[in-house]
Amino acid sequence: AQSVAQPEDQVNVAEGNPLTVKCTYSVSGNPYLFWYVQYPNRGLQFLLKYITGDNLVKGSYGFEAEFNKSQTSFHLKKPSALVSDSALYFCAVRDGGGSGGGADGLTFGKGTHLIIQP
Amino acid sequence: GAGVSQSPSNKVTEKGKDVELRCDPISGHTALYWYRQSLGQGLEFLIYFQGNSAPDKSGLPSDRFSAERTGGSVSTLTIQRTQQEDSAVYLCASSRTSIIINEQFFGPGTRLTVL
């Protein structure tokens, strides 16, 4: 079975400071990892994904995430936070099963509220 | 192009009634997913369709839940004999192929309230 943990319900950061939203995962095969963002009263939007290759993945709106296999983590980061980054962030995983492919849905974490203070 | 659309945006129903939720995926997307977002519970996978293949129903919480996808496009999620614990936002997503490495595009959701 696959699972995702987002240990922080809420993260508060001052505008201009770097931000990190934590995510750890558990899969039996190779992980496919995703970050999504949900703004108030809007649907989920894709930010970035890790499939293979470079451990540092760059995505939309200046966000990036670092895949760390030994720590089974995929933390979301941004060097300088904006007030407009305030939203609910979801980490998600799919077990690649070692042989690639697979067609089931993603397993999501419970989400982390990111609040950027002016 | 148009994104994933869902209807209705809000649905209020009485306990015991049946409800139907509709999803129109992005044109050309062969994979379609339903999720449920409950307060404090994150997103829960419900069911997956790929083209005309038999759906993956592994996430459906009970036999009161069913879904179909007609012509490989529009999907309907049906909840029979609704219960108060069914209250949630139901999200639909689509992706270009069944290969999961393609990101899923989500609709705005249907907020279901069971009184």
Question: What does this protein look like?
Answer:
The complex is a heterodimer of chains A (118) and B (115). Chain A is built from no helices and twelve strands. By secondary structure, chain A is mainly β. In chain A, strands 2, 5, 6, 10, 11 and 12 form a six-stranded mixed sheet that branches. In chain A, strand 8 and strand 9 form a beta hairpin. Chain B is an all-beta fold and 115 residues long. Chain B is 0% helix and 48% strand. In chain B, strands 2, 4, 5, 8, 9 and 10 form a six-stranded mixed sheet that branches. Chain B has a four-stranded antiparallel sheet with strand order 1-3-7-6, with no helix packed on it. The model of chain B has no long low-confidence stretch (mean pLDDT 90). At the A-B interface, strand 5, strand 6, strand 10 and strand 11 of A face strand 4, strand 5 and strand 9 of B.
Gyration radius of chain B, in Å: 13 Å
What overall geometry of chain A do the principal axes of the alpha carbons give?
globular
Q: What is the chain-wise order of helices and strands of chain A?
A: EEEEEEEEEEEE
Radius of gyration of chain A: 14 Å
Structural class of chain B: mainly beta
Largest interface: A-B, 25 and 31 residues
Rounded mean pLDDT score of chain A: 90
What's the shape of chain B?
globular
The helix fraction of chain B, in percent, is under 10%
Overall pLDDT score of chain B: 90
Distance between the termini of chain B: 37 Å
- Please, what is the oligomeric state? heterodimer
The number of helical runs of chain B is 0
Question: How is the main sheet of chain B built?
Answer: 6 strands, mixed
* Tally of separate helices of chain A: 0
Beta-strand residue percentage of chain A: over 45%
Q: In percent, how much strand structure appears in the residues of chain B?
A: over 45%
